[in-house]
Amino acid sequence: xxxxxxxxxxxxxxxxxGKFNSSFGLVKSPSKVVVESFLSWQQKILPDxxxxxxxxxxxxxxxxxxxxxxxxxxxxxxxxxxxxxxxNWTLYFDNGVSGTDAGPPSVLSSRLGVDAIRVVMADEVIDxxxxxxxxxxATILEFYSNGVERRHIFVANDGGKWKFGELxxxxxxxxxxxxxxxxxKDRFTNAMLHSYLKELGVNLSNANSVLTEPDLGYLLTxxxxxxxxxxxxxx
Length: 235
Prior knowledge:
nine-stranded antiparallel sheet
C-alpha cells in the first residue's frame, strides 16, 4: 500500500478489488485449510438441494480470478473464491448480486477456531438508466473470534441520513476521537478501515502478488438445477 500527500495531509492509496470491492471476507488460516473447511460444511448441505461444488485451483493474478467469479447471480450464489493474502490470511469472495455473503466468514471462524473479518467498502452506485440507487454507501468492519462477534464498527447511508455505530470492546489501536467528529460519514472511513486491518495483521496489498506454486487460490463453482427465479447479471 502506497501513500501520498494531499494538501499537506498523508493519504493512503486504498487497495481496489474492482466490482468486488464493496464486500468481502477474511479468514485467519491458510487458503487450503479454509477451502477444505468450507467444502466440508457445504457438502453436508448442498446434496439435499441437488447441488454439488466443483473445485478449481487458481494461480496468477487476483484480478483475473475475480473476473472468473462473474456473472453475478440471484437468488443463490454459484461461485466462491478463496485467495491467500499471505500465509496467515485468506480472502473470501462470492458472486451474489448484492455482494459477498456476510455469513461464511463467521461460520468458518467457528469451524476452524480462528479469527475472521467481514469488510464492506461500498460506494453509492446509481443506475444511469433508471436513476435508482443500486448500492448504498457504507464502511463496515466486523471482527469474529471463534465464531463470536468481537467488534463491529460501521458508517452507512441506506437512503436517508448517515448513521454510525460501534459494538464490542475497542481495540487499542482504534482512533476513538474520530468516532465523535461532526460529520457522521467521516467517523469511520475506508482509510481508517485499511489501517485497522494492517494493525490486525492484514495487508491487502499483498493480495495483488502473482500466485505461483505452492501458493494457490481456489475457485468453487456450484452445479445443479437452478430455481425458476434464478438470474444472472452482467455488469
